[in-house]
Structure formats: structure tokens, C-alpha cells
Design a protein that fits this description.
Threonyl-tRNA Synthetase, Chain A, domain 2; 4 domains; globular; single chain; BirA Bifunctional Protein, domain 2; 8-stranded mixed beta sheet
């Protein structure tokens, strides 16, 4: 049997065993909802008066093992809707699920032994004995809303790791422990990179050290883009509703935008103001139109001065292109942009830097002729290859095709998808990438680049989106060689994606031990005693003149305490200077992660070594001058 199918089969079956165990422990009043498998196991949601705590995990696990030892038979039955409702009478969540099933749905249930039944499509094991060798462990309990709707019942969600063998479970737990050690929400504040505050939910405060690293990433992106012919622009951070209506984002993205209510038309003095009601605590999470009194003017998009903080840069790039007529000789035109973006998220969805409400992207919108698409996207992929390799990251590509809420003509979509498929086949070979049917943007198909970190986890960062729709919406044309007028094609592109998210990923990837070129502080200078401060200042000055980010501690305190503090911040090189170094014009160097120390390194040679590390963007520190 295929391993993934096997995992799905037995994890799903174990979820039923968990539900049965909870009911046997806490009584038949327990309302059991749903219990799907997930990447490393499964969970089950329960509605119950008692709170399940970590102290309860062992007894629930023991009850599950006891149930497995009974070697009960699993029986599948197809039943009518009427019989299903009767069977689950008193179970409100099962009842709701049954009533919501299509009229022609075949309703199936699974009995485990004689006293437990669950509504389920299956498949499942035939007997609990098949699960005896499974290794599982309850590891968490959290709150969850029924059907993910915060307006519905609050439930308790019990999470369980589940693997075929104990060795696999043990390896997974070790990986989880390592992931916790790498958690950017822990390492970031420890290294004084960023902070969050309740006054700006989901919006990072970038501290001096973190902002220096942020700027290093931006500088690297700008350097590469300059080599490839990109021009950087900046545009307004808020725009009138009219712009978002033209682009189509109002219809598809309104609920994810921060809105600034406006006044529609010339209302009577006593008229209520149409717009948006906002709950500040929810960050505009709930939007509702205010009703106008009878006889008031109708809401008019042309007159409406409601504004929205931009969740993406696309419409502004379109307006920048639209400002003048263009010729085929100018194309491609590449507009890169690093403006601040805002996207409204539910409070429960925000997660450190991985999911924020304010961020920047290494955005680009490139305007091309259709004949230039293949060459341009090949160049974009070469940029991604270079950038990801610099961080020691590998990636794989995915093609996402037309979604249900697509905008535009199907034939245009077919042409766009065919173009991307041709590019991917040439770059990665036929079948060398995945296809996600229906997962494209509403305006065009896309290529997503999934990077893999040091723990083997995958993250979607880069994206290349082909767009035949927005040029039509905005009327973005160019003069052809023959003197005619054609519609431009737009390629939306990001490599880092969200800078915030990418930084969170690389914090965890490197565990805070960043490559020299992107470290907030690259060299720390420690004079042995205050009488050595003068030479230490000369070392600092020389390093700064060479563009090295340097920090020095001239306080009258123990040298070892200074070194310890800098090691805690994971500085790559800690330079120690005393009388001998001052006399000889040298430095002694502590290297991050090494017990060895370099002595008597000429200052010029050390400066050159640091300069070369910045230029090469090496992943490794030099251990000899």
C-alpha cells in the first residue's frame, strides 16, 4: 500500500479511536465534531463542559491503547438521511453536517465495536488490531471554532502525532524540538531584531539591529535587479475605491483591506454617512454598509471618496505605466517596488513574521509583448536561482491554474497557462513541477516557488504571475512595429515575497547564525582595558570606512563580560585588542562557532577579509586571514 494512503488510513482511524476514548472518559454528553488527518497526525474537535488539559493527556492515551487492545471490528454502513439524523440525535454538529449534505449524497457511517459510531466517508481499518503497532502521542489542545467561524461555537481541539513506528515518532519529536529552538518569535527578540506590541497587531517594530539586516536584504535585491534592467518606483500607500474597482481587487479582496470611510456624493446635512463600520479591536474585521435614509442620493463610485490602504502594488504599477504612450522599442519595462503593504487578517491567523498585517515585498510588474514572455520569465527564474542559492536554499516550482472566480476570457487564460507550462517544461523537464488546478490568482495563472529550509520544511515565497487581464482593465497599450496598437501583458513577480515572512524563515533556517554579509553587526570590537580604547577606535573607524557594520564596547568593564555579551548576539567576529595589537597594528579575532582564535592578524588583512565576505556573500565565515 502507498505510504501516504497508509498514513491517511490509519491516522483517520486513530481519530475515531480518540473520539471514542474521550466519550468513554468524559461521558456521552460530549459533542464530537470532526477529526481529520493532518501532516503529522490528526486532531479531533469536541464540545464539552470540562476543559481538557495537558495533565489529561496520559489518561486519554491509555484509554486509546485500551480500546485498541479490544481488537474491535470496524463496520461501514450506508444509511438514509432520516436514519442518520435519528442515529446522531443529540449530537448537534453531526446533525448539522448531515442536514448540509447534498440530496444525492450517499451517507456512510463507521461503527467501532458496538458502542461508537461516527459519520464518515472513510476508508478505515477493518479491525483495531491493525493499529496496535502505531506510535501516537497527544501533544496539544487548543481552542477552535466550529467550521472555522468565530461566530459559531467554541470547541476544544485535541492534536495527536501519529506515525507507523516509534522511531518515526521519535524523529518527528526531535525535529519539532529543533524547530522550537529555531523559532523566529524567540530568536528575533533575543537578538534584538524586532518586537510586536498590542497597539499595532500583526505589525512588526523593526529595531536598529533588525532594520540593518532588513536593509542588507533590500540592498541585495536592488543590486541584482539593477543588473537585470529594473527601475524602482514608489507609489501612494492609500488609494480611492475607484482604483480598486478598476483593478478588480474591490470585488475579490475588499474584506482583506483596511478601509478609510468616505462620503458618497452631496448628502443632505442630516444624512447618515455611508461607508464602513469598524471595530478597532478587530482591525476592521467586520465591515457593514451604513444605510442611507429615504431620499438620499445613491452611492456613486465616481463620487465615493472611500479609500483603502493598498494590500498589493499592482494597480499603482498599472497607473505608472498608463501615464504615457509606450512603443514596442521600450518593452520590457520593469517597475520594481518595495512600498509598505497592509492586509487585514483575523487575530487568530497572525503568527509572528510569518503572517502579518503590514509588510513589504520585493515586488515587480514587468510590461511585455506576448512574444517576450518566455525570455522574460526565464530571466526571472535565473534571478530566483541566484538569490535562493545565496541563502543555501533549494526550491521546487508549482504551476497554479484558473480559479473559479477568474476574471477575463477563458481563451486568454488557456493561452497564458500554455505559455507558463512551456517555460516550466523547458526549465525543469516535463513532470518536473507540480500543477495546482484552480489555485491561480483571479487575474492570471502563476508559478509559485516553494523553498526548503534547514529542517526540510517548505515555504511558498517566490511567485511569477502572468496577467492578460489588468492591462485590459486599465487600457495598457503599446505602439507596435507596424504602427498599430496592442495590449501589453503584465508579469507580476516577487522572489523574497513578503520581506517579513522571508526574514522569519531565514532566522529559523540559520538559527540566528546569519551569513556575514547580512548580519546586523558583522564585527564587534572589544578593547582589553580602557587604555586600549584609542586603538580600538582606530579599528572601528577602519572597518566602518570599508562598509563593515561594526560595534564597539568602550565601557570600563571586564573584557570577558563584553565578549560574552557579543557572543550571545551571535556576532560573526569579535575583535579583541590590547597593548600588543596596538603596537603591531594587528587584531585578535574570536570566530563564531569556533573555539580557536586568530592572533596577530594585520588590521589591513582583516579588513580585506571582511570586505571579501561582503562581496562574495559567502555562507561560511573565514577561519584564517
Amino acid at each position: 500500500m502507498d505510504k501516504e494512503l497508509y498514513l491517511s488510513l490509519y491516522r483517520h482511524s486513530l481519530a475515531h479511536v480518540l473520539a471514542k476514548a474521550v466519550i468513554e472518559i468524559y461521558g456521552k454528553d460530549v459533542q464530537y465534531a470532526i477529526g481529520p488527518q493532518i501532516a503529522d497526525g490528526f486532531y479531533y474537535d469536541f464540545g464539552m463542559s470540562q476543559s481538557i488539559t495537558r495533565e489529561d493527556f496520559p489518561k486519554i492515551e491509555e484509554k486509546m491503547k485500551e480500546i485498541l487492545k479490544r481488537r474491535e471490528t470496524w463496520t461501514r454502513s450506508e444509511i438514509s438521511r432520516e436514519d442518520a439524523l435519528k442515529l446522531f440525535e443529540g449530537q448537534k454538529y453531526k446533525t448539522e453536517l448531515i442536514r448540509d449534505l447534498p440530496d444525492d449524497e450517499i451517507i456512510t457511517v463507521y461503527h467501532t465495536g458496538e458502542d461508537f459510531v461516527d459519520l464518515c466517508r472513510g476508508p478505515h481499518v477493518e479491525n483495531s488490531q491493525e493499529l496496535m503497532s502505531a506510535a501516537f502521542e497527544i501533544h496539544a489542545v487548543s481552542g477552535a471554532y466550529w467550521r472555522g467561524d468565530e461566530h459559531k461555537d467554541a470547541l476544544q481541539r485535541v492534536y495527536v502525532w501519529a506515525f507507523p513506528t516509534r522511531d518515526e515518532l521519535k524523529a518527528h519529536k526531535a525535529m519539532i524540538a529543533e524547530a522550537l529552538e529555531r523559532d523566529h518569535k524567540k530568536i528575533g527578540p533575543q537578538l534584538d531584531l524586532f518586537m510586536f506590541d498590542e497597539t499595532a497587531p500583526g505589525m512588526a517594530y523593526w529595531l536598529p539591529r533588525g532594520w540593518r539586516m532588513y536593509q542588507a536584504l533590500l540592498a541585495y535585491s536592488r543590486e541584482i535587479q539593477a543588473r537585470h534592467g529594473y527601475q524602482e518606483i514608489s507609489a501612494p500607500l492609500i488609494n480611492k475605491k475607484k482604483l480598486w474597482l478598476i483593478s478588480g481587487h474591490w470585488a475579490h479582496y475588499q474584506n482583506n483591506m483596511f478601509l478609510v470611510p468616505g462620503v458618497a456624493g452631496s448628502l443632505a446635512a442630516d444624512a447618515e454617512i455611508p461607508g464602513v463600520l469598524a471595530n478597532p479591536q478587530d482591525g476592521l474585521d467586520e465591515c457593514a454598509e451604513v444605510k442611507l435614509p429615504a431620499g438620499s442620493p445613491l452611492f456613486n463610485a465616481e463620487q465615493d471618496d472611500t479609500m483603502g490602504a493598498k494590500p498589493m502594488n499592482c494597480p499603482n504599477a498599472m497607473m505608472t505605466y498608463k501615464r504615457t504612450m509606450h512603443s514596442y522599442r521600450e518593452l520590457p519595462i520593469r517597475y520594481s517596488e518595495y512600498d509598505v503593504l497592509h492586509r487585514k487578517e483575523k487575530s487568530g491567523q497572525m503568527n509572528g513574521l510569518f503572517r502579518v498585517q503590514e509588510f513589504r515585498q520585493d515586488d515587480d510588474h514587468t510590461f511585455v509583448m506576448e512574444s517576450q514572455i518566455e525570455e522574460e520569465i526565464a530571466d526571472i527564474i535565473s534571478i530566483a536561482d541566484e538569490i535562493y542559492a545565496t541563502f543555501g536554499l533549494t526550491y521546487r516550482a508549482e504551476l497554479s491554474t484558473r480559479p473559479e472566480d477568474f476574471m477575463g476570457d477563458i481563451e486568454v487564460w488557456n493561452r497564458a497557462e500554455a505559455a507558463l507550462k512551456k517555460i516550466l517544461d523547458k526549465k525543469y523537464g516535463e513532470g518536473g513541477y507540480e500543477v495546482n488546478e484552480g489555485d491561480g490568482a483571479f487575474y492570471g495563472p502563476k508559478i509559485d516557488l516553494q523553498i526548503k529550509d534547514a529542517l526540510g520544511r517548505e515555504w511558498q515565497c517566490g511567485t511569477i504571475q502572468l496577467d492578460f487581464q489588468l492591462p485590459h482593465n486599465f487600457g495598457l497599450t503599446y505602439a507596435t512595429r507596424e504602427g498599430g496598437i496592442e495590449m501589453a501583458v503584465v508579469i507580476h513577480r516577487a522572489i523574497y515575497g513578503s520581506l517579513e515572512r522571508f526574514i522569519g524563515i531565514i532566522i529559523e533556517h540559520f538559527k540566528g547564525n546569519f551569513p556575514f554579509w547580512m548580519c546586523p553587526t558583522q564585527v564587534a570590537v572589544v578593547p582589553i582595558r580602557v587604555e586600549h580604547n584609542e586603538y580600538a577606535m582606530e579599528v572601528e573607524r577602519r572597518l566602518k570606512a570599508a562598509g563593515i557594520r561594526v560595534e564597539a564596547n568602550y565601557a570600563d568593564q571586564n573584557m570577558n563580560e563584553k565578549i560574552k555579551a557579543y557572543k550571545k548576539m551571535k556576532e560573526p567576529y569579535i575583535v579583541v585588542v590590547g597593548a600588543k595589537e596596538a603596537e603591531e597594528g594587528t587584531v585578535s579575532v574570536n570566530i563564531r562557532g569556533s573555539k580557536e582564535q586568530l592572533h596577530g592578524v594585520p588590521l589591513d588583512r582583516f579588513v580585506a577579509m571582511c570586505t571579501e565576505l561582503n562581496a562574495s556573500r559567502s555562507l561560511e565565515l573565514k577561519t584564517e586571514a
